[in-house]
Amino acid sequence: MRQTVKVTITNIVNFGAFCDVTIDGKVYNGLIHISEITDGYVANVSDHLSVGETVDGYVISVDESKNQAKISLKNAQ
Fold it and tell me: Which chain positions lie within coiled-coil regions (predicted)?
């Protein structure tokens, strides 16, 4: 079962958004790829997310050695 988390958007780039996410008590640098924002087409990430916004997401994968996590927002609400 996937883990649902709260993520805070820290930066928006053309290929997605970076975020801070806490997983099992540890803070990770997260990436939400543009294809994981919504099921529909996303032309501009800023139309869907804003820096400082907190949203629900779920963990796709975690790389402990790099302190990074891949996050999806699809079907997380």
Answer: none
